[in-house]
Q: What sequence folds into this?
């Protein structure tokens, strides 16, 4: 029996011509996440009240609704630490002491991992900071987390937060170096009054003058304490609260609207870290309480775009931009995440930390592409090769 073979060249041209565009795509170098090599651009408010663009070189992004950064299953680099320490009643300046308990900072992540899924205001998904109603050994059981890095300098710092509706606690988002260089946003739940829709927030710069006034910035007469009424109920849903810490001023925001601005000698002059705290010590002049029932304030995310106070990191940031490819650019803040917050963010206290809009591997270095993209390409390439080989064999 005579079998007529088709010329190999003819068969090869046929399947290669069909698959060549796909082969070119698969063999093309994977894109790099280098779009943000020259930093992260956002809008801030000038001393004259106008809006102005400003660029920061570093970022930390943590999505507490999707990642339990303190759980046993989390394998990424740790950016946050749950605090564990005690304050006596005299140190805390209240009738009760304060015990900060790691178990009172509890993660409750949403069931789905879809990136476009959203939590509703009725949900309490995120990091729950709990103040217990039970006083143990004369101490109220509180919760606090802090960033591991302590080089957060000029920057914009933001938190998604739902404040407790249980009277008798203080919920705080703050930047801290020491007791005389501190920037606070503080909610005193006993001040909320639903009858007249009064929901004040306390905006504070702690300075040497406020320390001399018994750590009461409202008595320091330096303009470093302001109480502002919020146009919404902070206990009914999540809202974004923001601190812009700049060289000549500090600006406070709620949902993108300026609440207050402060300037002068009270502006911190060094780097510090970020903290989220929920506490009570029974002081009737501040936290009041303790709460009659367990009180929960819930954190959905933290975003920090900043310049490092570490000189080496500052030099690396400038060098990173100078050696970036022609396509590199400053990434514009549009309200989402620049990085993949599930990786733990990019604050590692050192190294290359300008991450692009692709995935971030969490150790402060850029990926060529996400593992899923790389594996997808490898799988598709293997399929194309196998398909081509099968066509060739059949053709033979």
A:
């Amino acid at each position: 029996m005579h079998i007529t073979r088709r010329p190999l060249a003819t068969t090869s041209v046929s399947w290669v011509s069909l698959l060549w565009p796909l082969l070119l795509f698969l063999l093309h170098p994977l894109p790099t996440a280098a779009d943000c090599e020259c930093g992260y651009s956002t809008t801030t408010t000038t001393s004259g009240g106008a809006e102005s663009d400003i660029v920061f070189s570093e970022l930390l992004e943590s999505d507490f609704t999707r990642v339990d950064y303190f759980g046993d299953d989390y394998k990424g680099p740790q950016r946050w630490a749950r605090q564990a320490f005690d304050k006596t009643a005299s140190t805390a300046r209240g009738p009760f002491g304060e015990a900060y308990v790691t178990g009172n900072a509890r993660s409750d992540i949403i069931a789905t991992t879809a990136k476009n899924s959203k939590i509703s205001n009725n949900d309490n998904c995120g990091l729950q900071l709990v103040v217990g109603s039970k006083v143990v050994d004369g101490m109220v059981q509180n919760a606090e987390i802090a960033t591991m890095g302590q080089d957060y300098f000029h920057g914009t710092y933001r938190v998604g937060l739902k404040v407790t509706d249980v009277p008798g606690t203080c919920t705080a988002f703050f930047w801290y170096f020491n007791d005389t260089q501190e920037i606070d946003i503080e909610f005193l739940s006993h001040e909320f009054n639903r009858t007249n829709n009064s929901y004040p927030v306390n905006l504070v710069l702690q300075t040497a003058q406020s320390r001399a006034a018994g750590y009461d910035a409202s008595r320091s007469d330096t303009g470093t304490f302001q109480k502002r009424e919020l146009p919404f109920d902070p206990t009914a849903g999540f809202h974004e609260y923001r601190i812009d810490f700049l060289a000549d001023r500090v600006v406070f925001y709620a949902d993108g609207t300026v609440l207050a601005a402060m300037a002068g000698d009270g502006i911190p002059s060094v780097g510090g870290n970020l903290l989220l705290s929920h506490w009570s010590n029974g002081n009737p002049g501040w936290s009041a309480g303790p709460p009659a029932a367990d009180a929960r304030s819930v954190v959905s995310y933290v975003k920090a775009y900043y310049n490092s106070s570490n000189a080496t990191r500052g030099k690396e940031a400038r060098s990173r931009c100078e050696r970036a490819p022609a396509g590199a650019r400053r990434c514009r803040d549009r309200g989402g995440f620049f990085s993949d917050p599930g990786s733990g963010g990019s604050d590692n206290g050192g190294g290359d930390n300008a991450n692009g809009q692709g995935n971030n591997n969490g150790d402060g270095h850029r990926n060529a592409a996400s593992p899923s993209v790389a594996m997808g390409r490898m799988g598709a390439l293997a399929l194309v090769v196998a398909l081509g080989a099968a066509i060739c064999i059949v053709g033979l």
Residues 1-18, 20-34, 344-378 have pLDDT under 50 and may be disordered. The radius of gyration is 26 Å. The first helix runs from residue 8 to 27.
